[in-house]
């Protein structure tokens, strides 16, 4: 047993006045044990001993931001819920760490685990209760927070393992657990991040990779990481022909973003191979209920030279697209004003002859199956036989006003008189839509669909929603029918890659209980399913994605989600839950991209400046 010596007779008051403490100063080295090697003693001018602290920091320079820790387990499993992967973050790095940040943990053999921060936690270094009055008041009287008593731990989600394959960096699913005390570092290399997230190097530019609303920075030039959609046949079909959806609330920047994306499809060097071996630039047809897309003809005066040079360095197409034409539907006495753009304008009308192939254009929302059958199998064929394929809408209404026809069909049992009357009521009211004083759209197909050209169909000047629906559906059906036909009447449509854009798509592709809605949904579903083969891409824009019919929604491969405040709308876009929670808080221009065939789900920031003219003066 150790000899405690004088400690057994220690008097706390002894030597306080007469210098008896000199015994302690002159004591043997063995009595200095409590100070240890981390401190020394010195005597102040007043004769009082004080301990001088010395550094306990390890020598050398820190590399990384922390290390993999095993205090609560270290496990990688096929089921993400069974994975336990945590890292201790050192004090100097804690302020820069964010949920969603990407980290790298190397394996000893040169492979690397690419992971993402999914949780951050402070834990007490020592067992102590800091929920006390003295702790709180002490903290309230200091200017800074002392983190020395706390551990800062990041919970990590493995994304992929990066490995070298003959000089090329590749990824595979996570199948290894990192070693304990592995040093982790933030991912700051463009190639590592793009490979880890399965992002392509080339394609259609959407925005820059971000975390928590801040762009991810690298050591490269430029320091940002561009996000692009695959646009060639080397790795499958271009994603433009596998359909896109942009969802965002009012003021979220969805039109700004949609213009920037469409501008990339209209780049001079963008072409797609056709079956006959030709390389053809795509045509874009955009239905525009707010009259905003014809402005893409003009340059944006706010786009300065410095920003333009940056766009050129990143290979982003910008500037007004000269081959932009506004096709103005002629509806009654409605007039179109175009002081906000300089695009060419061409008026057109919908000929009633199109109804023979698409009878639901005049079916209205009230026709039941029996009434629709009477219209398509009896009345329209009888009218065509009597007036020819060029019969007008006015002639059709006159045809239905004939009481002798009504009586004849009723007596023959072909169409009951009540059914006849119901059909007649439903098809009235389109006299300002069909056969107006303008060229029929069927005579303008060659100008309407132009390789490398942007066609905008504005409907803002039309006050009748029923007329708007009829025009948009008539023109889109013409395009889709010709694209899907094995014996097309208009080869121009069949032989041109086509992007069919529709703003406020929820108004036309909604899940409604009517014959008309059912026919429209069927047509667009077929277009979506066969789009890859026929080089037809749907580009839908909406603020109410929950209203788009599920049959169409299921065919969408790329979903771009901006700020949405409605819970049902957020749920309907089917993005991962960790990104779903961010959607209501995203600022203008922030977006989530969910495109399983292109990359892992990611957060982006779009360009702050529109690449073409945008907004009214």
UniProtKB/TrEMBL annotation:
Q: Which domain of life is it from?
A: Archaea
Q: Where do Low complexity bias regions lie?
A: 17-46
Compositional bias per record (Acidic residues), positions renumbered to this chain: 1-16
Fetch the InterPro entries from UniProt.
Answer: HerA_central, P-loop_NTPase, T4SS_component
SUPFAM superfamilies reported in the protein's UniProt record:
P-loop containing nucleoside triphosphate hydrolases
Chain intervals for the UniProt region annotation (Disordered): 1-64
Protein known as: AAA family ATPase
Taxonomic lineage from the root: Archaea, Methanobacteriati, Methanobacteriota, Stenosarchaea group, Halobacteria
């Amino acid at each position: 047993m150790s000899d405690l010596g004088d400690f057994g007779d220690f008097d706390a008051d002894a030597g306080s006045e007469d210098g008896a403490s000199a015994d302690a100063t002159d004591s043997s080295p063995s009595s200095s044990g409590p100070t240890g090697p981390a401190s020394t003693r010195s005597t102040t001018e007043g004769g009082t001993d004080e301990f001088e602290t010395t550094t306990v920091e390890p020598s050398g320079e820190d590399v990384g931001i922390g290390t993999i820790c095993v205090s609560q387990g270290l496990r990688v499993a096929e089921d993400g819920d069974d994975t336990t992967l945590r890292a201790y973050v050192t004090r100097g790095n804690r302020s820069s760490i964010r949920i969603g940040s990407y980290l790298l943990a190397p394996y000893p053999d040169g492979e690397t685990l690419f992971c993402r921060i999914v949780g951050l936690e402070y834990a007490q270094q020592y067992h102590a209760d800091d929920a006390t009055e003295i702790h709180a008041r002490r903290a309230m009287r200091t200017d800074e927070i002392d983190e020395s008593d706390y551990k800062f731990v990041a919970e990590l989600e493995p994304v992929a393992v990066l490995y070298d394959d003959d000089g090329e960096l590749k990824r595979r699913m996570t199948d290894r657990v990192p070693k304990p005390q592995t040093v982790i570092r933030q991912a700051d290399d463009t190639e590592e991040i793009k490979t880890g997230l399965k992002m392509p190097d080339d394609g259609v530019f959407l925005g820059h990779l971000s975390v928590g609303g801040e762009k991810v920075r690298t050591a490269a030039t430029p320091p940002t990481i561009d996000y692009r959609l695959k646009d060639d046949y080397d790795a499958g079909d271009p994603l433009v022909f596998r359909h896109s959806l942009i969802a965002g609330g009012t003021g979220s920047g969805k039109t700004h973003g949609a213009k920037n994306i469409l501008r990339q499809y209209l780049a001079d060097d963008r072409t797609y191979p056709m079956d006959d071996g030709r390389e053809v630039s795509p045509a874009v047809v955009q239905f525009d209920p707010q009259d905003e897309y014809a402005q893409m003809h003009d340059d944006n005066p706010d786009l300065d030279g410095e920003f333009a040079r940056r766009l050129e360095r990143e290979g982003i197409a910008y500037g007004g697209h000269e081959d932009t034409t506004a096709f103005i539907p002629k509806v009654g006495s409605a007039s179109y004003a175009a002081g906000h753009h300089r695009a060419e304008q061409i008026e057109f009308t919908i000929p009633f002859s199109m109804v023979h192939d698409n009878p639901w254009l005049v079916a209205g929302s009230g026709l039941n199956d029996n009434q629709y059958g009477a219209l398509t199998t009896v009345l329209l064929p009888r009218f065509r036989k009597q007036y020819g394929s060029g019969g007008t809408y006015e002639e059709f209404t006159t045809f239905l006003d004939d009481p002798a026809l009504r009586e004849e069909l009723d007596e023959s049992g072909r169409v009951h008189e009540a059914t006849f009357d119901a059909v007649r009521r439903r098809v009235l009211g389109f006299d300002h839509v069909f056969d107006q004083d303008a060229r029929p759209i069927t005579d303008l197909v060659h100008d309407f669909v132009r390789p490398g050209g942007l066609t905008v169909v504005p409907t803002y000047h039309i006050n009748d929603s029923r007329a708007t629906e009829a025009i948009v559906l008539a023109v889109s059906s013409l395009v889709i029918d010709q694209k899907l036909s094995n014996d097309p009447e208009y080869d121009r449509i069949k032989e041109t890659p086509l992007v069919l854009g529709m703003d406020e798509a929820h108004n036309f592709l909604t899940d409604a209980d009517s014959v008309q809605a059912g026919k429209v949904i069927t047509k667009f579903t077929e277009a979506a399913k066969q789009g890859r083969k026929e080089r037809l891409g749907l580009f839908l824009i909406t603020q109410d994605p929950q209203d788009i019919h599920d049959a169409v929604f299921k065919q969408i491969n790329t979903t771009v989600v901006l700020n949405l405040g409605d819970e049902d709308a957020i749920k309907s876009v089917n993005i991962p839950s960790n990104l779903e929670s961010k959607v209501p808080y995203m600022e203008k221009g922030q977006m989530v991209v969910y495109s399983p065939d292109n990359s892992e789900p990611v957060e982006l920031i779009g360009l702050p400046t529109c690449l073409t003219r945008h907004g009214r003066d």
